[in-house]
């Protein structure tokens, strides 16, 4: 049975929505969440261990209630919302060999293939020969030492790279009991940093990375839901 990522947090932030710099209404501020998302709000108040964020818009827009421990900070202007830029890489179409490889390896490691595809998109834009300035290579941007540990002999071979990267992602999901945010943060910044900070480390790059993948994955699911035929 396929073990999909734990999406309990995703629903909340899908409803609240990440905000873009161009859409920040006048008089609104930004709450920066520890999972990489941001929420626009007009005012806030503490309610026990939670913080109520009164949403921007009409007076009747209401509020969302977030555990205060999940809030990294509050900012005005566009500095916070810039943490989650859109992903410009194209999607891979049906029948594409990389898409087929992702589906196969995701099934083998019991992860939703759409989730793996969102990680690959953020890591390399589906370019098998992608290389980072830090030395990460391939579709899932494996560092040489990580590739060796995972038994990946040819890091630029798409099948081998996807196998190693997806297996590592499965290890991280298991390590953090299905906590997608921590698993993604660890994939980007390393498990030692996640453990050092007790969650997503305070790096803007990592916040943006986590938010980018969550937004892309949610977009896929919304599209799939809209395209599904209605029950008769």
Can you give a write-up of this model?
- The protein has 232 residues and is an alpha+beta fold.
- The protein folds into two domains: 19-83, SH3 type barrels (Roll); 97-227, Lysozyme.
- Helices cover 42% and strands 12% of the residues.
- It contains eight helices and six strands; from the N terminus they run αββββββααααααα.
- The strands form two sheets. Strands 2-1-6 form a three-stranded antiparallel beta sheet, with no helix packed on it. The chain has a three-stranded antiparallel beta sheet with strand order 3-4-5, with no helix packed on it.
- β1 (29-33) and β2 form a beta hairpin.
- α2 (97-108) runs parallel beside α5 and α3 (113-124) crosses α8 (204-227).
- It is globular, with a radius of gyration of 19 Å.
- The two termini are 28 Å apart.
- The model is unreliable at 6-23 and 77-87 (pLDDT under 50).
Shape designation? globular
Order of helices and strands: HEEEEEEHHHHHHH
Task: Please report the number of helical segments.
Answer: 8
Strand fraction equals 5-15%
Arithmetic mean pLDDT: 79
Strands across the major sheet, in which order? Answer: 2-1-6
**Structural domain tally:** 2
């Amino acid at each position: 049975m396929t073990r999909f990522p734990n999406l309990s947090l995703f629903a909340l932030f899908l409803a609240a929505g990440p905000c873009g710099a161009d859409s920040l209404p006048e008089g609104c501020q930004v709450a920066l969440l520890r999972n990489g998302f941001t929420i626009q709000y007009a005012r806030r108040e503490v309610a026990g261990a939670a913080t109520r964020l009164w949403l921007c818009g009409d007076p009747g827009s209401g509020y969302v209630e977030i555990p205060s421990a999940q809030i990294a900070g509050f900012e005005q202007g566009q500095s916070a919302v810039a943490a989650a830029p859109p992903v410009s890489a194209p999607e891979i179409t049906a029948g594409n060999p990389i898409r087929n490889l992702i589906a196969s390896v995701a099934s083998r490691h019991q992860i939703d293939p759409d989730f793996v595809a969102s990680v690959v998109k953020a890591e390399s834009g589906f370019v098998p020969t992608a290389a980072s300035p830090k030395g990460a290579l391939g579709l899932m941007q494996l560092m040489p030492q990580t590739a060796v540990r995972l038994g990946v002999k040819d890091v630029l071979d798409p099948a081998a790279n996807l196998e190693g990267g997806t297996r590592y992602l499965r290890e991280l999901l298991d390590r953090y009991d299905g906590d997608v945010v921590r698993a993604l943060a660890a994939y980007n910044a390393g498990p030692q940093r996640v453990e050092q900070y007790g969650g997503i480390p305070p790096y803007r790059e990592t916040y943006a990375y986590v938010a980018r993948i969550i937004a892309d994955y949610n977009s896929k699911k919304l599209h799939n839901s809209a395209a599904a035929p209605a029950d008769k």
